[in-house]
Design goal:
Layout lengths: L4 E9 L2 E6 L2 E7 L1 H11 L4 E5 L11 H10 L4 E4 L5 H9 L4 E4 L1 H5 L2 H10 L4 E10 L2 E6 L4 E6 H11 L3 E6 L11 H10 L4 E4 L5 H9 L5 E4 L1 H4 L5 H10 L8
Parallel strand pairs: 1-4, 1-12, 4-5, 5-6, 6-7, 7-10, 10-11, 11-12
Antiparallel strand pairs: 1-2, 2-3, 7-8, 8-9
Helix pairs in contact: 1-2
């Protein structure tokens, strides 16, 4: 049985780690390279670094960031934000990232998932999905949650898997930054439809929420930001708690 993964997420804007609530109201949370190194030392299983303004401001992901982080880490890390071509992905992977995350670019050009998977292997391709529940139905949103689409969440993740996505990173916009728990019902449904790992994102407020997303949401990994950035929960304490609760996690 594969271990459940704990993944700190670093949302990066103008070279700094930031965190908001429901995708807005950003506040500074520190230097991304220093934080990445700290989390690796504490026992994080992977890291995700997302340049949250890259797509909106039409910038490319900072390859320099991938290089700096790769020099400090001994665990896998994913970089996303502004990756819209095989060339963009190659630059980031070549700089040391283990995986790339695509979101808006995949929705606008689904064939990109196929191209990246064929070129680099599905294990390198994470399709990130930001969705919001509207009148009882989940809809995919683009550009950091700014633009609603007509794409239904569950149909889209199934298409992404068919096209070669190796993992789905699902963020519930309704839960993001609220610290009220993950969208476990939606995650469990997604798990029943897919054969690839699902990373839960949006809503971690305490250790129980992370336990619940593994047990009730059937998530393969839990991604969190502010609870780690602002020292509310330490990774070693979290993993000990999960182990005691019968969740299979890797202890350093």
């Amino acid at each position: 049985m594969l271990s459940k993964r704990i993944i700190p997420c670093l949302d990066i804007k103008d070279g700094r780690t930031v965190k908001g609530v429901n995708f807005v109201g950003l506040r500074d949370a520190g230097d991304p390279v220093e934080l990445a190194k700290l989390y690796a030392e504490e026992g994080a299983d992977e890291l995700v670094l997302l340049d949250i303004t890259a797509t909106h401001e039409k910038r490319k992901t900072v390859v320099e960031l991938a290089t700096k982080v790769a020099e400090q880490l001994n665990i896998p890390f994913t970089i996303g934000g502004g990756i819209s071509s095989v060339e963009d992905a190659h630059a980031v992977l070549n700089a040391g990232a283990d995986k790339i995350s695509i979101n808006s670019a995949a929705v606008k050009n689904p064939q990109l998932i196929n191209e990246l998977s064929e070129k680099f292997g599905s294990q390198c391709v994470v399709v990130a999905v930001d969705a919001k529940k509207i009148n009882g139905q989940w809809f995919v949103h683009l550009n950091g949650g700014r633009i609603k689409t007509d794409l239904e969440l569950f149909a889209w993740v199934q298409e992404a898997e068919k096209r070669g996505a190796g993992e789905i990173l699902f963020t519930s916009m309704d839960h993001d930054g609220t610290k009220a728990g993950f969208a476990d019902e939606a995650l469990a449904k997604m798990n029943s439809l897919l054969n690839i790992p699902i990373i839960a994102s949006g809503g971690a407020g305490n250790m129980e929420h992370i336990r619940n997303t593994f047990i009730n949401g059937k998530s393969d990994a839990a991604l969190a930001a502010s609870i780690f950035h602002f020292k509310e929960i330490s990774i070693p304490d979290l993993k000990k708690y999960l182990k005691d609760e019968g969740v299979n996690v890797r202890i350093v």
